Amino acid sequence: MNTFTVVEELGVAVVSIDLAGSPVNILTAAVKAEFETLLERLGAEKSVRAVVLISGKPDSFIAGADIEQFVGLPNQAAAEALSREGQATMDRVAAFPKPIVAAIHGTCLGGGLELALACQYRLATNHPKTQLGLPEVQLGILPGAGGCQRLPRLIGVRAALDIILAGKSERAAKAFKLGMVDELVPPPLLRSLAVAAAVRLLESGLPRRTRHGGAVAWLLDANPIGRALVYRMARKSVQAKTGGHYPAPLAALEAVRTGLERGMRAGFVDEHRRFGELAVSAVSRKLVQIFFATTALKKDDGVEPGTALPRPVRRLGVVGAGFMGAGIAGTAVSQAGVEVRMKDAELARVGKGLKAARGVLDGRLKRRRITKQEHQRAADLLSGTEGFSGFPRADLVIEAVFEDLGVKRTVVAELEAVLGASAIVATNTSTIPITEIAEGAHHPGRILGMHFFSPVDRMPLLEVIPGAATAADTIATAVQFGRRMGKTVIVVADRPGFWVNRILSPYLNEAGHLLMEGTPIEAIDRTMTRFGFPVGPIALLDEVGLDVAAKGGGVMHAAFGERLTPADAITRMLADQRLGRKSGRGFYRYEGGKKAGVDAQVYRLLAVTPSDRVSPQTIEQRLVYAMLNEAAMAAGEGVVRCPRDGDIGAIFGIGFPPFRGGPLRMIDDLGAAPVVATLRALQAEFGMRFAPCAALVAMAEQGGRYYDGVTAAAPQPLSGAS
Ligand code: 3H9
After folding, report:
1. CA distance 168 to 571
2. For residue 214, what pLDDT is reported?
3. ∠ CA 536-542-545 to the nearest 5 degrees?
4. Portions of the chain given CATH number 1.10.1040.50
5. Which residues contact 605 (CB under 8 A, 6 or more apart)?
6. How many A from CA of 336 to the centre of ligand 1?
7. Percent of the chain whose pLDDT exceeds 70
8. How many whole angstroms from 25 Cα to the centroid of ligand 1?
9. DSSP codes, 18-29
């Protein structure tokens, strides 16, 4: 292997890291071995007085340890050894007799940052691609190569916990501000300034580093009483965020605490022990599977590889300047960097839409996702019209007009009259079949669905839906553009509800049935947030909007009959003009835009008396099994192309608990036969809506599964389920 090349300059060995055959640098076992041999050689070589570590890749310093290795670890002892060896490598860097400088451009994550932290000095490029972070907890593990020890010592315990416990990455400017890097430099000067820094270190030693944060930092970080308070607050916040489902952040907190309170050596031991436990845990396995599934989706254009070329999209048209249209426009300019022309029937509406699209940019600026310059650049890409001026030059048009078949068909006809010969029309619908919208169009091959979730800038999923006549290159273009907008994209079949709303429908209906039986709203929502959903089903109805939920529920009922009969609750709420959060009145009360408690008047409105008759176990079982059964049925119909897409869709579309791996993975974990048995028991008590679907029954009989083994993230046919 030749991952490292060395060039000597002014007595400084500039070590360039470039792992062959991989788009990013990762610390595999072989890379680590080669690095250690190199260190030994550079340590002994007289002519070398200092070392600079730099990457040979365009935008990756080092993306961390090799994640695939964790999946292959046979047991806890092996995982512990991996971490111990990682710590030992970093220790050798820290104890190296000559200065080592890290010259960072691109992603510097996990083990990559741990290596940089072990160096004496760090420079980073002031470039958006440069990100420094410790994302380990997102994989269900902790920084296991000394990161839990070195980061708090460098930047203080509060700032370090903020990064480690959330698995955060910071841009270079923020990393500089926090003290993670010593110098912020322009990319073309990185190498020469790193060599200069190495020479400076030789001549005048390490500069004095000042800790940021003033007196408060001193009070909290620098004495045991202050730190005890920090640990207590951090633990409380982690428990509130994870609901006890994700052990990694708490383990990381303990490893940090041990190191700071009992010394670095004790910290290392605690760190590798806990790493060992976490790396082989079921939660970590699930989170790693999700990482590989999303990575695989980044390369999947939704068509057979090699069958279609995605077309470039430089200009986007958006028809309909409402909430969705503005969200799409704002996200497209800021994430994809394309020109966007918005159209609505009246100029006043266009103006409002443009303002809302700019609001998306303002939000991203406020959350520091973009800089002021990027905000300005993105805002300049937005324009509006009440006619179709500019549309003939659009490569893709997304319509987000009123959810009505007739209106949508009219828009398609108007667009076909003005668009260029190869332009694509995407319809953002959640309830209307794409094939019906495309009926009567001149170019149905260039029409498809792009179902965004609300709010567009915050929701990570996009469903792309080909109609019966959609051409392969149309699909590939929409998928690629969705990815440029920052979305995880799944291609789903043109069936009612597509995937996400299909599996959501019986779940929300069941919540309605429970409510109409007198189950308190808090009990339903609390049970499901304890299960791991970010919000409970009733709160979700308020967020989605009860009018929207009623419409969607009606469509699903019409398509699938009695099984998906919605409960009466929403109709009664609508009769009282309650639309959910957007109207300030729903199942919950809203005060100043903020969700307050449950609105007790709702029970009177629904003519029910709240009672705790139904146990939390039954609430959970009814809600979860309704979704599992529907997921199995839809998967069996081929609504998703493979289990991976179904599970990622559920996790990113409705917040299905990631540590459970998704509904199809959950069926595998429970076993199809026990799932069928539970559904039959529920059917006996609550009726045919719980009848196990044919796909699941067949799977139970044949002993089938959705996935083979733990790593299967690549598309597999759904034959096992059909
Ligand atoms: C760690 O470091 C533990 C230590 O604390 C302690 C150890 C003892 N491993 O996403 P992309 C592959 S844990 C293996 O399409 P992008 C990826 O699978 C690690 N493979 O590119 C894909 O492979 P393929 C902490 C990795 O530009 C290819 O690289 N680090 C790893 O959209 C391209 O990836 C992380 O959690 C890896 N560490 O995004 C960072 N990283 O081409 C994980 C990448 O065969 N990585 N690959 O499909 C990422 O977040 C993104 O990949 C990154 C690039 C942002 C770096």
Report:
1. 43
2. 66
3. 135
4. 500-712
5. 572, 573, 576
6. 22
7. 97
8. 8
9. --TT-SS--B-H
CATH label, 315-491, candidates 3.30.300.130, 3.40.630.30, 3.90.1530.30, 3.40.50.720 = 3.40.50.720
Tokens linked to 642? 């493979």
Phi, psi dihedrals of residue 395, rounded to the nearest 5°: -90, -30
Lookup: tokens for 493: 């079949």
Give the ligand 1 atom nearest the CA of 83: 8
Task: Find the catalytic residue in 136, 170, 463, 510.
Answer: 463
Bridge pairing between strands 121-125 and 100-104: parallel
For residue 344, the SS3 value is coil
Nearest residue (by CA) to ligand 1, atom 50, is 63
Cα 359 to Cα 364: distance, rounded to the nearest angstrom? 9
634 in Cβ contact with 495 (< 8 Å): yes
Single-letter code of the amino acid located at 444:
P
Cβ atoms of 264 and 149 closer than 8 Å: yes
Tokens 């060995």, residue located: 13
Contact between 584 and 590 under an 8 Å Cβ cutoff? The reply is yes
- Superfamily classification of domain 4-280: 2-enoyl-CoA Hydratase; Chain A, domain 1 (3.90.226.10)
CATH number for domain 500-712, candidates 3.40.630.30, 1.10.10.10, 1.10.1040.50, 1.20.1600.10? 1.10.1040.50
Distance (angstroms) between ligand 1 centre and the Cα of 524 equals 38
- Tokens 């109409």: give the residue: 516
What is the tens place of the pLDDT at every residue in 534-546?
999 999 999 999 9
Quote the CA–CA distance of 176 and 156 in Å, as a whole number: 14
Spell out which residues line ligand 1, taking CB within 6 angstroms.
Answer: 22-24, 26, 63-68, 82-83, 86, 107, 109-111, 114, 135-136, 139, 143-145, 147, 295, 298
- Note the pLDDT tens digit of each residue in 225-270: 999 999 999 999 999 999 999 999 999 999 999 999 999 999 999 9
Contact 356, 323 (CB under 8 A): yes
